[in-house]
Specification:
This protein is mostly helical. It has seven helices and two strands.
Length: 179
């Protein structure tokens, strides 16, 4: 019967390999950057792309109404089978083509929005867990380039993968009492 192999920090090369081992060594050390500002920027970008496409769609609808082309507004099937000669010259695409692109874009946006929500819902690390990881990175695991470890100083954007943080205060109190 084999024994359980527990990785030792010393077995890993300095830098990212050793830091990875350290972070994985205890669930309270699993701290990572959420990239909240980046997610916000990406969402704003996609949101504006969708807004422009929505404006284009509404413009198409208004133009068809103004030109008396109601049949294309009343029947999707008629709109799909529309003769190229009946498409206004100022349109860069047909309404079905635009709707197809809009569907792709809004699904991308929705996926990104839900991922951002999931990340935002993750707990922030406790002060004790943050200090432990920070201490390791600045001292014992400090073999990384300063720029590449700068994420640890962005404390407000860090999340913990540690489940069930509701009793963290009790864990901390017990640890202090046992010392």
């Amino acid at each position: 019967m084999g024994t359980t192999a527990i990785p030792k920090l010393e077995e890993f090369s300095e830098g990212f390999p050793r830091l990875s081992c350290f972070l994985d060594s205890d669930e309270s050390f699993m701290l990572f950057k959420r990239f909240g500002i980046v997610f916000s920027r990406l969402l704003l970008n996609k949101q504006d792309e969708i807004r422009k496409m929505e404006d284009e769609l509404r413009g198409m609808d208004r133009m068809d109404k103004a030109l008396g082309n109601q049949e294309y507004l009343l029947s999707r099937d008629q709109d799909v089978k529309r003769e190229p000669s009946s498409i206004p010259a100022c349109w860069s695409q047909t309404r079905p083509q635009l709707l197809e692109k809009l569907e792709t874009k809004i699904l991308e946006y929705s996926e990104l929005l839900l991922k951002a929500h999931q990340l935002k819902a993750l707990e922030k690390p406790s002060a004790r867990d943050y200090r432990s990881v920070l201490h390791y990175m600045e001292n014992d695991g400090g073999q990384m380039y300063e720029e590449e470890m700068s994420w640890i100083y962005d404390k407000e954007d860090l999340v913990s993968l540690r489940p069930g943080r509701e009793h963290a205060w009790l864990d901390g109190m017990l640890e202090r009492l046992l010392k």
